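Listing S7. Sequence submitted for prediction.
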Amino acid sequence: MERGGSIRAVPGRGTEGRVDGRLWRIGSWAWMRELGVDLKPLEAAAQAQQAQAATVSVACEAADEAAVPQARALVAFADAPKDGARAAIEALHARGVRTVMVSGDNRGAAEAMARRLGLKPEEGEVMAEVLPGDKAEAVRALQRGGGARELAHGAHTVAFVGDGVNDAPALAAADVGIAMGSGTDVAMHAAGITLMRGDVGLVPAALDISRRTVAKIRQNLFWAFIYNTAGIPLAALGYLNPVVAGAAMALSSVSVMSNALLLKRWRPDAVAGKP
């Protein structure tokens, strides 16, 4: 068999090229249906692979673009969850965060993988067969409060975690985009947060430090407001001489900075499920 030529990727569907003058395609089950391929002989084998969380692709052959392709092989790609992914999801649940898996894989494989991660497909925690260009719309649907049954009770703040080129639009569309440091440059540029170690177990930690940072900002604003509300009238009315007022102002700045520096004592507890 000669080497393939005229190879091109079909976004969200698969790849096609010519071998020995014939047109070969390998891609998703949905794409094969669009092409009119008879998939009945492969259904039992495909379902068995999908039950094991494998993504199923089909290789088909045709004489040319106009001919109806014939299925020639079933190809299953097994994917293992990232280390710490299940623990990270459990930690997010412990913090009151609902999680939804957005995947381009076929529904059978996506739901099997979701169950391994502790998600509940029957409660709408899986969005499967999402094309790369549709991930951003999936994020917007979740922001509107749709797209998953347990999230259909109003608008939500959505964080999206991804590491690939196809995730970039969704990372940009989310309220908070979280990219892996081991991912693509495009994803990191689109995200608001980059986890430099590329460890999904740090996602709950990122949530923790963000919440603590916002809490410190609010505390500092509160005390600064109280100080100025009390101090400025006293200084204006002459109850505080300039030296005392200046010292008090410096002390207030030191107290605000000291309170902010307390964040340095924080240590991540990413997978213990503790808020």
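Caption to Listing S7: primary sequence and predicted structure tokens for the chain studied. Strands lie at 5-10, 14-19, 22-28, 54-62, 70-78, 101-102, 126-127, 159-162, 176-180, 193-195. The domain at 85-203 is CATH 3.40.50.1000 (Rossmann fold).
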